[in-house]
């Protein structure tokens, strides 16, 4: 796709400069030079040698580096390339200037509807009408939203609004990831990668709720970057022969997760799970017998959370 775009651009270059540019050598009298495109260096050749040919080569290289003349005639295609990180910050800056965006703090949200995806995308676009915020379909299943921050909603609240609106209007359920706020649109690809990671991690960990922030999974991302062999070593050091008894039991893991989310508060956890306190206490005791960790204590709760992540990363 990128090569096709570059060839299309080179045809425009030929029209504007009268210089035919090739991406492979034909031999003979020709001048080799390097052009920059989407943040990459690409070899190119033009006919002729000598000072005049070198001047034409420099003109073409300058034109390609500084002009924005239809490489992405479709705005959505252009935005998609920016979110994927093609061309780096300079590519994002050219998008911003081309479409007269006022730069500022912004972030990305990824939405994965469970059905009616075209209608869901159209609805999201209606929600963004009359703003400089934008949405684009990244593929057949994922929608990305670029949101410029405001004082009315936090990123999490905005994501919840989109998720709830899609359900109320279309009956569509979603998985939604929220990236961190960036100081400039030129960094938006980082936020999109974080939003996509949040969606992916929520699937791996079967997290409750439809909206998930990248911040929830920062520890997971850190451990995911560790080689699997090292993760196995860490897991073995805990010497938990009975860990599978807890981690392979959905009821037990759901109970433990809710207890952690409820700040280790037994009463609140019982209410949220509609569970009798005695049943909850029995399950917490069972977790302690199987793992040796009393997750009523903060330090053990932290260790349990880390072990949960290690177990799921090793068994996914």
CATH class of the largest domain reads: Alpha Beta
Q: What is the molecular shape?
A: elongated
Radius of gyration: 26 Å
Helix content: 40-55%
Average pLDDT level: 85
- Note the beta-strand portion: 5-15%
Distance between the termini: 33 Å
Q: Please give the CATH architecture of the largest domain.
A: 2-Layer Sandwich
The largest β sheet comes out as:
5 strands, mixed
What is the oligomeric state here? single chain
> What is the CATH superfamily label of the largest domain?
Reverse transcriptase/Diguanylate cyclase domain
The helix/strand class is: alpha+beta
The CATH topology label of the largest domain is Alpha-Beta Plaits
Description of the structure:
The protein has 316 residues and is of the alpha+beta class. It has 3 domains: 2-66, no CATH class; 75-221, 2-Layer Sandwich (Alpha-Beta Plaits); 228-315, Orthogonal Bundle (Arc Repressor Mutant, subunit A). 54% of the residues lie in helices and 13% in strands. The chain has helices at 2-17, 51-66, 75-83, 88-98, 117-127, 155-170, 188-204, 218-224, 228-238, 243-247, 250-261, 266-273, 277-291, 298-315; strands at 30-37, 40-47, 106-113, 134-137, 143-148, 174-178, 211-213. The strands form 2 sheets. It has a 5-stranded mixed beta sheet, sandwiched between helices. Strands 1-2 form a two-stranded antiparallel sheet. A hairpin with a 2-residue loop joins β1 (30-37) and β2. α8 (218-224) packs across α14 and α11 crosses α12. The model has no long low-confidence stretch (mean pLDDT 85).
């Amino acid at each position: 796709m990128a090569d096709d775009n570059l060839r299309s651009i080179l045809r425009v270059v030929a029209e504007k400069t009268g210089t035919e540019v090739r991406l492979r050598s034909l031999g003979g009298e020709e001048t080799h030079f390097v052009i920059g495109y989407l943040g990459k260096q690409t070899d190119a050749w033009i006919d002729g040698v000598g000072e005049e040919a070198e001047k034409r080569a420099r003109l073409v290289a300058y034109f390609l580096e500084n002009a924005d003349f239809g490489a992405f005639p479709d705005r959505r295609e252009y935005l998609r390339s920016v979110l994927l990180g093609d061309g780096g910050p300079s590519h994002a800056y050219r998008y911003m200037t081309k479409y007269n965006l006022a730069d500022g703090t912004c972030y990305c949200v990824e939405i994965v509807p469970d059905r009616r995806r075209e209608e869901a995308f159209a609805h999201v676009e209606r929600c963004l009408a009359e703003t400089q915020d934008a949405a684009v379909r990244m593929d057949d299943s994922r929608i990305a939203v670029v949101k410029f921050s405001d004082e009315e909603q936090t990123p999490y609240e905005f994501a919840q609004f989109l998720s709830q609106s899609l359900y109320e209007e279309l009956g569509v359920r979603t998985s939604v990831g929220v990236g961190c706020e960036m100081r400039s649109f030129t960094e938006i690809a980082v936020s999109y990668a974080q939003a996509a990671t949040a969606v992916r991690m929520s699937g791996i960990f079967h997290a409750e709720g439809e909206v998930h922030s990248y911040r929830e999974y920062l520890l997971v991302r850190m451990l995911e970057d560790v080689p699997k062999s090292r993760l196995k070593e860490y897991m073995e050091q805990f010497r938990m022969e009975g860990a599978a008894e807890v981690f392979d039991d959905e009821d037990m893991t759901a109970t433990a997760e809710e207890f952690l989310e409820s700040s280790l508060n037994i009463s609140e956890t019982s209410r949220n799970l509609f569970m009798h306190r005695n049943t909850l206490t029995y399950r917490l005791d069972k977790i302690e017998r199987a793992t040796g960790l009393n997750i009523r204590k903060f330090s053990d709760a932290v260790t349990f959370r880390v072990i949960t992540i290690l177990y799921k990363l090793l068994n996914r």
